[in-house]
Every structure is written in structure tokens, then in C-alpha cells.
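User: My instructor asked us to take a sequence, write out its structure as C-alpha cells, and then describe one feature of it. I'm not sure where to start. Here is the sequence I was given:
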Amino acid sequence: MNDHDHRKKCFVSLHLQDHTNIFAKMSHTLELPFTTAEEAVSIIESNSRVFIHGGAATPLRLLNALLDRGGAEIKKVELVAISMYGNINWNRPEVLHSFYLNSLFVSENIREWVNSAYGEYLPVFLSEIPQLFDRNILQIDFAILHVSPPDIHGYCTLGTSPDIAVSAARNAKKIIAQVNPRMPRVLGEGTIHVSRFSAMIWEDAELPEIHHNTKTDETTRKIGEKVATIIEDGSTLQMGIGAIPDAVLQCLRNHKNLGVHTEMLSDGVLPLIQNGAINNSLKKVLPGKTVSTFVLGSRRIYDFVDNNLSVNCLSASYVNDVNVICRNPRVAAINSAIEIDITGQVCADSIGTYQYSGIGGQMDFMRGAALSEGGKPIIAMPSITASGISRIVPNLKEGAGVVTTRGHIHYVATEFGIVNLYGKNMEQRARLMISIAHPSHRETLEKAYHSRFGRILPI
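Assistant: Let's start with the prediction itself. The C-alpha cells for your sequence are:
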């Protein structure tokens, strides 16, 4: 259907089949007023604030149609979002002069935008972002959402990313929706009725996927093995995407009665769910359920969560609430860092003053794990960067952000070992951190130790 035909036929009938036992043989027709992306975003006005759905639910068709209005047509529009994925056509003068990006987390495809004169980063715990909307600290004029098709009653879900979108949708004055048959119907908190949409489009498109090299190198394998040794049977896991979380998960396949209560759900958990290592049986919060606030990975994980009663995706205000996290037993929160100083200050969001990512939920889960009975807050990272620079440093770079403070740090793991800084004084911490640094950088760190503490490092 071309744009002309789409405009001409504004009501599109969806034939919906209910797959529950009671209604197995019933079908319904729901007439929905779909329009074009260009018409849908035409309701957005200058001097407004627009929430953009993030993660795998980034509404690329609508977002790029909105950015195409940049120039003389629209001015002073603030975009609010967390990580966005996919091809966003932002790096054009007409876009930069019309739109300002106020980002709550930073993904690779918008990193330069955030670090330019036309964007900025707002530091906030993921668990508290919904409060910004609920309390009108960031008043949302429009929300652009990417949703699953409606059920027979007209209810869509927020798909892979309820996270902060639950609150944004609740508070937005107007909502524009990208309805996608490839968006999984994810159960939990993120349901929204089509009557809330001021405009909607039908967009049959693949979701953005995050793939990474599944082959584990020697460094990553060692880190995974060391972290796995301190995770007990019956632990509740929080971990993200990437080589280190996957390496840890691969070493947990013989564990028993693991649970998942995590900020992000990705492909790495699937083998453990399939072999029964993860069964969520010992969790106190939603036992029997794999709990997350968003889903990001390959089509495989998107298909797994589709209409899956064993998975609950809920608002970040609940999933990332420290008081909720700590109710689960033996929470193992595994996060990473850009650099850590020898006293345990963790920089995980910036390289000096350059904003690389964001605070996200690291502190939510580090603190929640610390308060959990038998919990283990863990920072796991290679000892050096790909270019050979030490990640363990005497002092953080000038301007670097401290995400996890030295008052919150517990376990730190590299390929050279795992140490627990909790209950240790500054000098003791420095000795422990140097012991897991890369050998080629230990002499420099030992000199910094001597300069700071006035003594030679004990052998």
C-alpha cells in the first residue's frame, strides 16, 4: 500500500484470533485508524517535549519521520529517551537546529549527539526515571511508542521495553504509536489501550537486534569462571548483555534453582532456562517468574518472551527498586566498569568528561544485592582495555563520573582474581586492587601506593 492509498483508506481492519481455550474458535475484527508516519508526527508542535521509546522498542519509522520535520517547519523540540537502537538519521544541520536530545542513558548511535552542543545527559538512577515523569519534573507533551498489535479488547503491550515507558505513557498528553506485528506481546505491566493513541501507524519491521561474538576469549573465560565460583545455588541473578555476563552464565549451567530478577533480559539466560538451572523457585519476589524491565538481544529472545506467562516485564520503578531487589535471596548483581581507582571508586558511565553511557541501574542492583541475604554485588571487567590501558588506576580521569561509590563497592573481578573490598580500609583496598591488576601495570600502581600511603607494598 503506497502513501496515497494509506491516506485514502484511513481505517484498517485487523483480523484477530484469540488463542485461549475458551475462545479458541472465535475471531474478531477490530477497526483501527492507521495513518502514515508523516501524518502521525504532524501533530507534534514546536516548543514541546517528546518521549521516545527506547531499547529494542525504538520506534525508528516514527522517530525518523519526526526528525525529517527539522528545519523551518518545527523548532525547539526536546527529545527525552534512554538507549535507542537502530539507524537514527540525526546528524544533519536541520535536525540539530530543531531538536535537542536530553538523554537519560547513552547508546552508541546517539553518543556524539549527546556530547555535542545539541544534546546532554541527565544523570539519574533507572529506578527513579519514572518519578521524573510522574512528578512533572520532566513534563511529557508527546510520547512516541512502539507496541505490539492489540488483542481482541484493544490492548497493546509496550513490548520489549516497559522500563520507563509505562510512566511516560501514563503522563503524556498525547501518544503516537508504531504498531508492529513483529513486536512480541510481553506480559506484565506494560499494557495500553488503543483509545489512548492520538495517532498510530502500522509498521511491519524487524526489531533492532544486539549480537555479539559468542566465542569466549581466554580473558573473558577466566573472568566468567572466577565470578561463577562465588555464585551459590539458589541465587537470584542480575546481569546484562555482553561477553562477560555470557561467560558467567556458561559457567552456571550445573547450578540449581537459580532465579532471574534483572534490569535487562538477553539471550544468555536461555540455555539455563532450557536446562532447568534457572527455575525461579526460590525467589521471594514473583516466584516462578523471570522478571525484567526490558528485553534486548536477538530475535531468539524476542520470540521467547512473546506471550510467555513465565516472563514478567515491569516498570523500572518496581524492578529496580532497592527495597524490592533485596527481598530476593542471594542476589548476584554482575556489572562492569570503564575504570576503578585503587580505593574502589567505580566509573562506569564516562571517559573523563566524555559521556559514554549512563548510570542506568548499576547502583540500584549493587545496593539491592548488598542488602539481600547472602547477596553479592560484583563488578567484573578485564584488567586492561583493548589498547592495553589499565582499567585499575591510581585516580579516576579528571571529570570521570563515580557511578558506584567506594562505600557501595564489594567484589571486583578481573582475569587475575576476585577480591572483596567491603570492610577494608583504603590502604587494604589498594593492595587488593593491585593484586588483580594486569602485571604490566602493577609497578606503576605500586609507586602510586607508596606515594599515597607512605610505605612499600608488602610482598
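For the description part of your assignment, you could build on this observation: The first helix runs from residue 3 to 8. Try explaining in your own words what that tells you about the chain.
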